[in-house]
Each structure stands twice: as C-alpha cells, then as structure tokens.
Design goal:
- This protein has 110 residues and is α+β, with helices and mostly antiparallel strands.
- The protein has one domain.
- It is built from 4 helices and 3 strands.
- The protein has a 3-stranded antiparallel β-sheet, with helices on one face.
- Strand 2 and strand 3 form a beta hairpin.
- The longest helix has 14 residues.
- The termini are far apart.
C-alpha cells in the first residue's frame, strides 16, 4: 500500500542504492534523451536541480543539500551542492557530479 505523497514501492525499489539517473546525466556521450535535458544546463547547481526535477517526475523524494568543508579557512570555502534521495527508508547523499554515494571526503591536510 502506498500513502499519498510517498513514492510507490515499485519506484522506490528501482532506485534503492542506485545511481542510474545520476550516471546517465554525467555520461559525456549520453543517450539522446539525457542530452535533450542537459542542453540548457550551464552550471553544477542547474545540473543537480535537473536531477531533482527528474526524480520528482518519478515520485522519488529528493532534496538539495548545500554545505562547506570545515577545514582551513572556512570563510573562503566554496559552497557545494549535493543531492539527497529518499529510498523509502533512509536519505542517501549523492555527489551529483560523480554519482558517488555518501558524504565527500575531506582532503588531507597539507
């Protein structure tokens, strides 16, 4: 049984731990459907918003997550945008540029 506003179990199961959508959007020679969506994408933030829109079309909840790495001079650290996707049980954090699942690793101190 599916509750209103929640993804159906079949949709949730297809994306459980899967980075298929992000991988397709990151393919340099992607399929023509992905290339049509990417035609107007000019920045990493637009790229992650596109992924969020496509997930919403499949009724898969997602959030844009903004953060900075707290090391060195945090005042000049760039803000990075990640994509959190709900798989029916947990929120999974993805790097939308690489498809990497999980929080980013902090670079080793120099």
């Amino acid at each position: 049984m599916s509750w209103p506003g929640r993804p159906s179990p079949s949709v949730t199961m297809r994306y459980r731990g899967d980075t298929a959508l992000i991988d397709r959007l990151n393919e340099p020679d992607g399929d023509e459907n992905a290339l049509l969506f990417l035609a107007d994408v000019d920045s990493p933030s637009e790229h992650v918003r596109l992924a969020q829109t496509l997930l919403a079309g499949a009724r898969i909840p997602s959030l844009l997550v903004h953060g900075i790495m707290l090391q060195g001079d945090a005042q000049t650290a760039p803000v990075s945008t990640m994509l959190a996707v709900h798989n029916g049980e947990d929120w999974l954090l993805f790097d939308p540029q690489t498809g990497h699942l999980g929080r980013p690793e902090a670079p080793a101190p120099t």
